[in-house]
Amino acid sequence: MKKLVTVIDLGSNKIAAVSASVRKDGRVNILSLENLYSRGISGGEITDMDKAVEDINSVVCKLQRHRQKRIKNVFVTTKSADVRMDIARGMAPLSKIPREITKRDVKRCLEIAAMVKVPLDRIVIDKAVRGFYIDGGASSIRNPVGLYGIKMEVEAFIATASQSKLQSITKCIDHAGLLLDGIHLSGIASANGVLTGQEKENGVLLLDIGDSLTEELIFKNSMLKSAHIIKKGASAILDDKMRVNKEKLTALLKEVFAGLAAGKNNFSSAVVTGGGALLEGAIEETEKLLGVPARIGIARNAGHNLNSQEAIIHTSTIGLINQIATEYKTSGRYKNPIRKAFRKIHDIYESYF
To answer: Which of 90, 89, 93, 98 is nearest to 151 (CA)?
Structure first.
């Protein structure tokens, strides 16, 4: 059975969209992909609702040329200087005696963490685990599923955005005649699209340099360790003739790396993606300033032959599709209604006994 998924990325000043089919075994097949510079988006914010709606409609219409079914539901990835990444902890009681921890317990624990320290004017758009702790233990656990415990805690990054921003995105998607299935942070989605498991394990810095915003994320031991957004991007390093100014490029990278001193020991390589990765000298200057190997980040596991430009433009859209494919693969065993009901009864029993 195939699941059709469409992701729209509202970038610094562009809109990129991908439509794909996802199989139950997690395999992805890209059906179509499009992108355009938006007249209604600037700096990751919707600045003109009508023009943004027109641009989304234009992208979706182009996607539908390669599909037999009409696109109705979409996921959205977004980046904005308004997005905040805060560290939160959540604790979920399991039972009175030790029992096996399930994926449902992990999900519930993350949901509890997401409810902590979130102001009323902000909404959670994404979560990234830093570590799990069982029965008050001091050692961080990467994957608690299958272990035993009485209670479980999680420390996680909680990405939030203002309600007004998310309401604007929701209205924009609604006026385009689409249903919004969820909003995700583009930086985390890009990490799923361009980074290898080995890089996340060994420690890697991901730089997503957009037109007017730059996201920096550090992964170590397969977990997100830090995340920041810089209010400056590729447009800040071009001269009047749209050529790269090496001095401005160096200044931008120095500003980006200024806050990395504390986390410098957490990564041994760097991956640069986004439009800024294509600028002349970007990779070389990154290696020079950081003293670690660097490469261009391109979308992986697309099930489609992408040219170099497409592979960079669509890192967050394909990255989110990869994430959805993984979740779809692991959630299949709970689709049976009888199993689902039994699972619920089992959870209630273990909560009390």
So the answer is: 93
pTM, to two decimals: 0.85
Output the 3-class SS for 267-332.
CCEEEEECHHHHCCCHHHHHHHHHCCCEEECCCCCCCCCCCHHHHHHCHHHHHHHHHHHHHHHHHH
331 domain-assigned: no
Tell whether 143 and 276 lie within a shared domain. no
DSSP3 helix / strand / coil % (the chain, rounded to 5): 40, 35, 30
337 belongs to a structural domain: no
Q: Which residue has the tokens 């570590």?
A: 131
For residues 287 and 205, state if they share a domain: yes
Retrieve residue 7's tokens: 């992701």
CA angle (300 as vertex; 298, 305 as ends), nearest 5: 90
- To the nearest whole number, what is the mean pLDDT of the chain? 86
Which segment of 84-93, 160-169, 296-305, 336-345 scores lowest on mean pLDDT? 336-345
Contact 208, 101 (CB under 8 A): no
CATH of residue 101's domain is 3.30.1490.110
> How far apart (Å, rounded) are the C-alpha atoms in residues 182 and 190?
16
Amino acid in position 42: S
Tell me: do 150 and 295 sit in the same domain.
no
Domain identity same for 59 and 8: yes
Q: Is 90 in the same domain as 202?
A: no
Q: What is the rounded CA–CA span in Å between residue 202 and residue 205?
A: 11
216's CB contacts (< 8 A; 6+ apart) are 205, 206, 207, 208, 226, 227, 228, 229, 230, 256, 259, 260
Q: Where are the alpha helices (DSSP H) in 115-206?
A: 163-175, 186-194, 197-202
Q: What is the pLDDT of residue 212?
A: 86
pLDDT at 278: 84
Task: Please tell me the predicted confidence (pLDDT) of residue 334.
Answer: 45
Domain limits at 274? 197-299
Estimate to the nearest angstrom the gap between the alpha carbon of 206 and the chain centroid: 12
